[in-house]
Every structure is written in C-alpha cells, then in structure tokens.
Amino acid sequence: MPLCECFLAAGITAALALVIGLWLFLDKRRRFWEDRNFPCTGRALMLFGDYKQASRTEHMQETNRRLYQEFKARGVPIGGTIFYVVRTVIVIDPELIKAIMVKDFANFHSRGLYHNPEVDPLSGSLFFLEGQAWRQLRAKLTPTFTSGKMKMMFETILGVADELGDYFREKTSDRSVEMEMKDVMSAFTVDVIGTCAFGIDCNSLRDGNNEIREVSRKIFKQSPLHMMWVIFLNMFRGLAKTLKLKETPADLEKFYMDLVRNTVEYREKNKVQRNDFMNLLIQLKNSENPEERVTMNEITAQAFLFFVAGFESSSTTMVHCLFELAMNQDIQEKLRAEIKRVCGDGKLTYETASSVEYLNMVIDETLRKYPVADLIMRTAANDYKIEGSDLTIPEKTLVLIPTYAIHHDEEYYPEPERFDPERFNATNRANRHPYVYLPFGEGPRNCIGMRFGQMQTRVGLITVLRKFRVVPGPNTPARLEVDPKSGLAVPKGGVLLQVERN
Ligand code: HEM
Ligand SMILES: *[C@@H]1O[C@H](CO)[C@@H](O)[C@H](O)[C@H]1NC(C)=O
C-alpha cells in the first residue's frame, strides 16, 4: 500500500475513534440519572441535553422554569439533569433549599466555578473562591459592608444622585420626553460603583463613551468564542488548572490592574482618605493584623468584582421597576405620595431613604418578578443523603436553585405575571415559606453587597420619582422580554419610557 493511503487510513481511523469515544463519553453522562433511578427528564439528550434551547432561542431561566415545573408536577423534591455536560440537580422543595443553603452549608460552600488566581488575578474574587480561601476572604470583607459603612458611603451616592436629578430636569425642561431607561440608569450605577469601588469620577451621564463605560460594556458582551472558552474551562477545571489557563481576557485584566494600582499609589502617596470601598480595601492591605491583611492582587480582584456584581444588577432592577410603575399608574401614584410624605423635599438621609415601606415592597416585588440573578449555584463536596427521601446527591454534582422558576410558581405567587407589591406586606410575607424568595441568595454565601445594592436602588428611584412621573410612550414595549444572549436576566432591546416633570 502506498505511504499516503496508509496515512489516510490511519487518519480516518483516528477520527472515527475520536467520534465514538466522544459519543460514549456523552452517552455515559446522559444516562447518569436514569442508571441511578433518580428523577430526571429521561428524554434522549443530544449534545446539549435539556439545555438545547438555552442561550440560543431562550434565556436559561425559561429552561430551568420548564424543568422545575415538570419535576414539581411529579411531586419530587429534586430532579436530575445534565447542564450541557455537567451533572446537575434542580432543587424544588423549599425545605431542601434551606438545608442546602444554611444547615448543611459545609457540604455546599462552593459554586464550582473555575478560578486560578496565581495566573489570573481577577479570578481570585469572593464569587469564585471556595473552601478555606473563600471563608477567610469573606471574613475580611464582611466589615466593609456593615450598615455603618453603608451610611458612610451614602453621601458619595447622593452626589451622583444629584447629577441624575439634574440630568432628568434638563431633559424635561419644557415638555415630556422619551428616554432610554437602560442608558440612564446604567450610567447612574456605573458612576456610583465607579466612585465607590475605584474612587474615580466617571461622569457617564454626560459622557456616555468614557473608557470605564466602554470596558464595562465589554464584560457582559464577550464574543461567542470567549464564551466557549469559559465553558471549556469550567468543564475541565482540573486540566485547566494544571495547564495554568486564564479565563479573563488580557485587555480587561490590564485595564483593571493598572486602574487599581494607579489609584492605590496615588492615594498612598497623597494620603487621600475617602468614604468608599477602595479606602476600606487599602486599610485591609495595610493592616497591622495578618488575619486581616490582603494583597494588591486581592484588592484588584475584589474591586473588579464589586464593579461587575454591583452596577448592572441594580440598574436593571431600577429599569424593571420604572417599567412596571409606568404600566401601573395607581401603584406609581401611591408610591410617589409615600416618598413625598416620608422624605419631604429636603436632603435625603440614609434613614429616610431606607424607611419608605411601600418603596421596599415595590422593590421586593420587582426582584420577585424579575430576579436579575435568575439562579443560585452550589456544588456538593460529598455525597448528600436527602432527609426524608431515599435520594442522594452524588459528590461533585452542580446544584441549581432556580430562583426565577420559584418566583413564578403559582402556588407561592398566584397570577405570577401580575405586578402586586402587596405580596410583600407583613401578612402575606408571614404566610409564605421564607425560602421561596431568593433575589440575593441565602445563608453564609448570600450577596455580600445586598445592602449597598438596595441602597443605590432606593436612592436612584427616589431621585426620579420625587420630581418626575413615568408613563408608557409610543415606543414602550407592552411587556419586557429577557435577552437570551445575556447571562444576567436583562431586557432585550430598549426600554423607552415617557418622562414628565411634576
Ligand atoms: C440589586 C442588586 C443585586 C442583586 C439582585 C444581587 C444578587 C446576588 C446573588 C443572587 C448572589 C448569589 C448569592 C448566593 O449564591 O446565595 C450574589 C452574590 C454576590 N454579590 Fe450581589 N447582588 C446585587 C448587588 C451587589 C452589589 C452592589 C455588590 C457589591 C458591591 C454585590 C456583590 C456580590 C458578591 C461579592 C457576591 C458573592 C458573595 C460570595 O460568594 O461570598 N452584589 N449577588
Ligand atoms: C396584605 O394584602 C392583602 C391582599 O393581598 C390584604 O388582604 C391584607 O389586608 C394586607 N395586609 C396588610 C397588613 O396590609
């Protein structure tokens, strides 16, 4: 046989072996739950399994909702699926959710996400770490988020809120105008977190294309190739770690490393003290107490995380809220009256901003109907026997708590598509299982920035609603659809509302 034919035959054999090997590997994964008699969908799961539509035609929150409803109808506390190729369970029973998030947290301390701070410093943030490394860092950072510290930063937020108010006033000088709420509210939160996390005045309301805004847009709009890279790293975490692979794109890393280094050096040289996160992080870096101390890379990773976790979640919540208020004028009138009654016309304080009870109910209902973080992740460290059932969650299984599906479960929230803040009055709240409301997660690993997120959301909404009314305009969508391409549950397309001064 001539040499080249020989090579060809060998090539074809190798390709065939690869395809068959891959097929067997996937087939074994796909049969995992069936083989164990664990409740599962049992469909022929092709390459992407139950998540075939996710990220293409529908957002993952819809996929999880369908799976949740299917398992719930069967009366099981939990169901098995394969998330792309990762072995996964979806939790249905609120008591089991509580056990996983609180009582048996020790077995579920990890989200199971790839990180490798040695070669990729920005991946060494609280969100990604696990075990002892997570525990120590969480303890160091917790004092940064107490209500005392929130009060301290309140003035800084008010400064940005004044600019937001001015902007609305100018735009509406002599008439009602149509405004793109996504642009305005994200400019507001980029500026708030920009000053609080990095101590820089971004001025995004005036200059929509400043560098930090450009870079921040890119964080959530990664190329499909990069998304595949991230999925790959998470699928083969052990291999990725051995090969020292990086998840963060190089330009993003350079931007934030330089930004934080320059800020820290400037402040240390000029002895600048400010009421913000950066100040608190620098104090930790220079702490006398080794238990408290953090490194420069750790500071950078946390500041970056606060920025990523903090701006779009809050701005999107305000957009959702203003949209519902435009669609429900009676609720908006009641809320505006309450804000005027409690806050008056003078300067806003931390106490008054926090004590508009009806505003808190409206925000709670907004996050119920539109939880921007639509699911919570944990990974089982060891096998976990479920109390009162003969089911066991095997070690290393990804545990998904489908927040969006739970928030839209008719058993807990009748007519889930209706926007009704009364769901969060004292009576209704007391009559509901507390673990069927999870916009900020629960337990030792819940959202560390919850108070800050709530505070900037309240201040932003009060600033707008004190002096302005929002109504649907000619280009306002009838309902908001979620963007299937976005990780966070954000609206697809624009959210134009008509704004009137009054
Ligand atoms: C409306 C605004 C926000 C929402 C809805 C939100 C939601 C969440 C959720 C659901 C989690 C996961 C919790 C869990 O797994 O149990 C989380 C984690 C986290 N959030 Fe937020 N968040 C918001 C604002 C913020 C802000 C403003 C910051 C920082 C300044 C922040 C920083 C974090 C951090 C650091 C974590 C990881 C905590 C850990 O793993 O120990 N978030 N957030
Ligand atoms: C809460 O709302 C329900 C209607 O959903 C109403 O019947 C009840 O009186 C309200 N309770 C309070 C304390 O406002």
Condensed summary:
This protein is an alpha+beta fold.
Structure description:
- This protein starts with a helix and ends with a strand.
- It is globular.
- The protein is an alpha+beta fold.
- It has a single domain, classed as Cytochrome P450 (Cytochrome p450).
- A four-stranded mixed β-sheet has the order 1-2-7-4. Strands 3-9-8 form a three-stranded antiparallel β-sheet. The chain has a two-stranded antiparallel ribbon with strand order 5-6.
- The mean pLDDT is 91.
- A hairpin with a 2-residue loop joins strand 1 (78-83) and strand 2 (86-91).
- Helix content is 52%, strand content 8%.
- It is built from 19 helices and nine strands.
- Helix 6 (147-171) runs antiparallel to helix 7, helix 6 runs parallel beside helix 19 (450-467) and helix 14 packs antiparallel against helix 16.
- Bound molecules: protoporphyrin IX containing FE and 2-acetamido-2-deoxy-beta-D-glucopyranose.
- Residues 126-127, 138, 305-306, 309-310, 313-314, 317, 372-373, 376, 439-442, 445-449, 452-453, 457 line the site of protoporphyrin IX containing FE (HEM).
Secondary-structure blueprint:
Elements: H1 3-30, H2 32-35, H3 60-74, E1 78-83, E2 86-91, H4 94-103, H5 131-141, H6 147-171, E3 177-180, H7 181-198, H8 211-220, H9 224-235, H10 237-242, H11 250-270, H12 277-285, H13 296-327, H14 329-343, H15 350-354, H16 357-369, E4 376-379, E5 384-385, E6 392-393, E7 398-401, H17 403-407, H18 426-430, H19 450-467, E8 468-471, E9 496-501
Parallel strand pairs: 2-7
Antiparallel strand pairs: 1-2, 3-9, 4-7, 5-6, 8-9
Helix pairs in contact: 6-7, 6-19, 7-13, 11-13, 13-16, 13-19, 14-16
The protein binds protoporphyrin IX containing FE (HEM) and 2-acetamido-2-deoxy-beta-D-glucopyranose.
The site of 2-acetamido-2-deoxy-beta-D-glucopyranose has 5 residues, from helix 18.
